[in-house]
Design goal:
47% of the residues lie in helices and 17% in strands. It is elongated. Helix 6 crosses helix 9 and helix 13 packs parallel to helix 16. The chain has 492 residues and is of the alpha/beta class.
């Protein structure tokens, strides 16, 4: 697909702020046309029951309304939206997501901390000089902090730690007070959180350390206000000076003189404490700042998918190799499912590249459970898919893929389909029939024509073929019974 002169958009629904980046592509070059951001404070709006307060949802949806106005003229397939830590943990996050998706007209993907780290690194690496040096990237968010070591455009180590400037504010800087004891406790806690990754990160090493978040940007701006000039790097010594200064000021209401945006004042001490903990734990000497972050990474990831450089394909291939999957057979099943998809996509209203992608990936992975045991291998395979680190996949997409693998044989677990897109059930039916016919590895062509309608699937076989394949007839009868139990009719 060519995207020259077309606009693309990425939205990051973060725990503290929502950000949107809009760009166009001309002669292969990405040109940013808009960057919007609003402080929403999702994480701060989670109550003691673990759910978003009503006013938090209202504030977040109002921001979505403003963002959606900018998206009116952008093709929906060119919009990527992700949610991070707060949407991962809030009990009523699904309610907000449903309302926000309706307003945006686009699907919201909830990504894991590791996927967030990958995308952050991708965004940062595209905004820095393309050299061969190894770099450490740190992004302090509202609910989590990401640490990534990478070279050029490839992350080598990724970690997402459950500490953020909003959660640290609530814990160590309650009521806006900044005390020496509270600040010390915050730094020590940050060091404690970093401890599990400390050894491997220091062993891996880096030549350049880069900060990539609003919290780190605010720290740079505060130091620049003091110096009166732009600074390129900050050191631990400068961080200590800033710490002493804000402790002396004593309260967030007194931080105005530091040239910090009003909406960031309340979380500034927490961000500074986390960064100081990182400097101490990892013995960082100097840090630079870059504008690139999650939303830029989303855009570049989207461009890679459109240009047939999809990191998800690499993730699937790696999983195949790890569990010894029959790659040739997986490719054969994928060819069959693609043929079925093309026949059914219009009548079943599933004509979307995402659905074809899920079928293709499921075809390549449905037998990986055999690496554990033949008995219940579909369940084993689903577990491996659901719990593996699959770069490029959101939590929801990974669940859908695992469900396709789980439901490709035996009883169809209809209750599991209640929490996914209704199209996934139709994809499952196509996939089951493809697997059924591909099980005879000697059959290298489809002996029937597939037709679908609302709740039925019909297979029109070549004359005399079924009579010569009694085992297939028996398998089809069994499959017909499975489909009947979920309200579908299979005829042949």
């Amino acid at each position: 697909m060519t995207i020259d002169n077309r606009e693309i958009a990425a939205i990051d629904l973060g725990s503290n702020s929502f950000h949107m980046a809009v760009a166009s592509v001309k002669q292969g070059e990405v040109r940013f046309t808009d960057r919007l951001g609003e402080k929403v404070q999702l994480a701060a709006g989670i109550n003691s029951q673990g759910a978003f307060e009503a006013d938090t949802i209202e504030r977040a949806l109002a921001c979505i309304d403003r963002f959606s106005q900018r998206l009116h003229n952008i093709d929906k397939s060119m919009i990527q939206v992700v949610g991070t830590d707060a949407l991962r943990v809030a009990k009523n996050g699904g309610n907000f997501i449903a309302k926000a998706e309706q307003k945006l007209g686009a699907r919201i993907e909830i990504i894991s901390g590791l996927e967030e780290a990958r995308l952050i690194y991708l965004g940062v690496s595209h905004t820095l000089a393309d050299d061969d040096g190894r770099r450490l990237v740190i992004d302090i968010g509202g609910g989590s902090t990401e640490f990534i070591i990478g070279e050029r455009f490839e992350p080598l180590e990724r970690a997402s730690l459950h500490m953020g400037c909003v959660s640290f504010r609530e814990r160590f800087f309650k009521d806006g007070k900044i005390t020496k004891i509270g600040f010390h406790k915050a730094v020590v806690q940050a060091e404690r959180e970093i401890m599990p990754i400390k050894k491997i990160y220091k062993k891996k090493g880096w030549e350049q350390c880069v900060g990539a978040s609003g919290s780190i940007k605010a720290i740079f701006q505060a130091l620049e206000a003091e110096d009166g000039i732009q600074i390129e790097r900050l050191s631990y010594k400068r961080l200590k000076t800033l710490r002493d200064q804000i402790i002396e000021l004593g309260h967030i209401d007194n931080l105005n003189e530091l040239n910090i945006k009003k909406e960031r004042l309340s979380i500034f001490p927490a961000g500074l404490a986390i960064l100081m903990g990182a400097f101490k734990a990892l013995k960082i000497k100097k840090m630079e700042y870059t504008q690139g972050a999650l939303r830029e990474g989303l855009l570049y990831d989207m461009l890679g998918r459109l240009d047939h450089e999809d990191v998800r394909d690499r993730s699937i291939s790696a999983l195949q190799q790890r569990y010894g999957a029959d790659i040739a057979h997986g490719d054969y099943v994928a060819d069959i499912t693609k043929a079925f998809f093309r026949k059914a996509k219009t009548d079943w209203q599933i004509d979307h590249p995402r659905y074809e992608g899920l079928l293709t990936w499921a075809s390549k992975l449905f037998e990986i459970g055999l690496a554990i045991a033949h008995s219940q291998y579909h369940r084993h395979g689903a577990y491996l898919v659901a719990n593996s680190d699959l770069a490029g996949f959101s939590k929801r997409s990974q669940e859908e893929l695992a469900l396709l693998v789980r439901a490709h044989r035996r009883k169809i677990p209809l209750e599991d389909f209640e929490r996914v897109d209704e199209a996934i059930l139709k994809l499952t039916l196509l996939f089951r029939i493809a697997v059924l016919f591909a099980s005879d590895r000697k059959v290298r062509s489809i002996p029937f024509h597939l037709e679908v309608s609302s709740k039925s699937v019909h297979l029109a076989f070549k004359k005399g073929w079924l009579e010569k394949h009694p085992l297939t007839v028996e398998n089809l009868e069994i499959e017909r019974n499975y489909l009947r139990k979920i309200g579908f009719e299979l005829s042949f």
